[in-house]
Amino acid sequence: MTTCNTPTAVTGPFYDELHVKYIVSLGHKLDSPSSYEGAVTEHLRMSGVYWSLAALSLLRSTEEVDAFMGLTKSIVVEGDEKLPARPAIVDWVFACYDEKSGGFGGNCSGAIDESPCPHDAHLLYTLSALQILAIADCLDDERLNKDAVEKFVTGLQNEDGSFSGDKWGEIDTRFTYCAFSCLALLGRLPLPNWEESSHNSTTVTEKRDGTIDIYKAVRYILSCRNSFDGGFGSVPGAESHAGQVFCCIGALSISHSLHLLNENEGGADLLSWWLAERQCDSGGLNGRPEKQADVCYSWWILSALSILGKVNWIDTSKLALFILNCQDEDDGGIADRPNDMPDVYHTFFGLSGLSLIGELGKFCDPDRRKYREIDPVFALPSDVVQRVGLTAQVMSASTV
Amino acid sequence: SHITLTMIDLPTVFPDITPIPQNEGKEPPVCSISYAPEFVQAHDYLRALLRSDERSQRALDLTTACLEMNPANYTVWHYRRRILTTLHGGGVGGEMDEEVIDKDLEFADTLGGTNPKNYQLWYHRRALLEIRFRNANQGGRVEAAQKELGYVDKILEDDSKNYHAWSHRQWIVRTVNNPQLWKSEVDYSHSKILDDPRNNSAWNQRWFATHEGQIALSSAASEGPTGNTCNDLKGGRVILPLDVAAEEAHYALCGAKLDPYNESPWRYLIGVLMEQWRFAQREGNEVENVTNATNLITDNIAQIREMKQSLEDQPPAPDLASVPCVSLISALVDLLEIFVQNKGLLEEASTLCRTLAEVDYVRRKYWRKREQDVRSQIETLN
Question: What are the Prenyltransferase alpha-alpha toroid domain coordinates in residue numbering (chain A) (predicted)?
């Protein structure tokens, strides 16, 4: 085991054009009736589309994303001119809206322009749907019944403040993040007032009708904190996991409750340290102690560290090199680790990781375009976050 | 026995149903090769049944076939549960035939082997067990819990860090809340730590079982527990009694000795000790607690220093000869730093931070900050 004690130089290559091609061609590849991969991921297509759009948004302008992906307009796919034009993504999103529940499903079946049958509504896909609409600047589309979606989200909060993913009741801190982000995108998140002393106590507060109980929700998040390592799990007692950490920190950030971390043992620094410890010899990040590095943690951990203002507690250059090594140099896309097959999930998180480190910009031609940046809290391009008027609480980046 | 698609001739079983294709109105591209025609056909029929929400045995059989092909489809799992409750009860507050529960657990088991990370499968098990636990007496609950824990152990044999599996164990033990089960879970964690001391999930489980198990232990005890009872539920946190904390610290150090370069036991050790320290610091707490916590920590510092020395004298492997053990030194720094009035210990901590900034190079900026913090504290003492 040797330690390399000199700063790492980050050089490419970065396969910009190939990544664009990979993302754009993925959509109609998965929709093809002959695609087995498409068939087994059909139920989560809403998230797949969000990952594609968000990833492409980091590499290309709003107009280019719309044109290549057919976001707001129906497009004919190159090579498929015999077929009817694919419906606009936004139209498909609304076809996945389930009026009965007020939420969005992961996909729908049947013709979009007749009576499509949306899959069962779920918080995960409701968030992805709203994120797609945000990217498309369609949050004010008349088809979006904000009251109904708000009601769907609110109805999923449980007595203890936690959120279920759907009416069947599975509870996970991922769903708290989804709920907060959905409500923020709808402009319906009630912000807490922690100054009021009654909310610092552990007594039960009356839930105001029609909105979530933000205090209970935040207290639930904090109850999922593991005191011995400062991390967060899916439910109280569950092992600290980087993905869950992102969801909890993101939720605390969205609800302007991040400062509460410092009222607990170890404070925010203990957590930041735990996150920093995830960096392996390869430069990549793992999700839990003694597990393998995976590109997706470049997002979960980096975004959490960004929110906590401690990105410099890891070696970002080494991480950037790891991500670059996970690119597929033949077909584009990014894989979970070097030499594996790429997929859109890891492509999005790899690109987001590079963006958060500030390494994406160095690859672009200064005369052409500037790569767009990703927002660490909402996992959307920062210009979209600004446009929608989303706010969050972050800790200022330390210089040490 | 589960149904395979070769056993269902769909048009014969569903003569009254018109299948609904995924993308209506779209002709397949010329020269397409369908990889899974049965998959497509089965799901086309399922779509039609979903639309009418048919609750029947034939619908159940079709969900079986579809789930075998794609166990991740949450809509199909929901539909299956709706059908089961209609056919066999188990809806809100109701009972479901035990045999039905067993059969469906078995069905989930046949899919679980190849899909250990599938959320829907674990959730389906939980949904079924919730009904079983609800309707059993405590004896029956414990028996059912042990059976299910046995199933989870099987999964953990193949994938010892499976997050869902460990979380499922926590849910079972918590739900049944039997003192014997809590104790067994501590023992189980121990056995998995022995299998692989680097299994962080097992260490986390030990923390969970020793801490939350305290609640069940003290309510089951006929006499009050002796020594420092620290059943403190501030914000829901349970603190270990001092004697248990000392045992757990000792356990962690033994774990660290097995492999000092392993993160988990050090993290566990510091967690146990800091918990005692913070509790002792709390307003209104007795001086005795501070003394006890201080002694426990001082004791551990001495042992860690010893370990550090013996690692330097006799490295565990040739290639580790010149590599200081970051986890060990980091733990030592954490403990030394507690003694904010003791210049000597703080100086020691400061020197160690400097070593770590060199040795743990990727995290050098963190260590430099730690060093700075310690130095600031030393300044205030001057």
Answer: 16-379
Length of chain A, in residues:
400
Residue A94 and residue B9: Cα distance in Å, rounded? 35
Specify the pTM: 0.90
Distance CA B55, CA B46 (A): 12
Q: Which chain A residues are within 8 Å of B270, Cβ to Cβ? A: 228
How crowded is residue B279: how many other Cβ atoms within 10 Å of its Cβ?
22
Pairing mode of beta strands A97-98, A117-118: unpaired
Structural tokens at position A145: 């019944």
Nearest CA in chain A to B200: A289
CB atoms under 10 Å from CB of A77, counted, come to: 16
If you write DSSP's letter for every residue of A19-51 in order, what string do you get? Answer: HHHHHHHHHHHHHSTT-HHHHHTGGGHHHHHHH
- Would you give per-residue pLDDT tens digits along chain A (400 residues)? 344 566 777 777 999 999 999 999 887 777 776 677 777 788 889 999 999 999 999 999 999 999 999 999 888 766 666 666 778 999 999 999 999 999 999 998 776 777 778 888 999 999 999 999 999 999 999 999 999 999 999 999 999 999 999 987 789 999 999 999 999 999 999 999 988 756 654 455 555 567 999 999 999 999 999 988 999 999 999 999 999 999 999 999 999 999 999 887 678 999 999 999 999 999 999 999 999 999 999 899 999 999 999 999 999 999 999 999 999 999 999 999 999 999 999 999 999 999 999 888 777 766 666 788 999 999 999 999 999 999 999 998 876 5
**Measured between CB atoms, does B117 come within 8 Å of chain A?**
no
| Burial class for A203, CB neighbours closer than 10 Å (0-12, 13-18, 19+) | exposed
The CA distance from A381 to B187, in Å, is: 48
**Strands annotated E in chain A:** 97-98, 103-104, 108-109, 117-118
ipTM for this model: 0.90
Nearest CA among A319, A286, A313, A344 for reference residue A10: A319
Q: Please, which residues bridge with residue A279 across strands? A: A285
Residues in B 237-256 with any Cβ partner in A closer than 8 A: 237
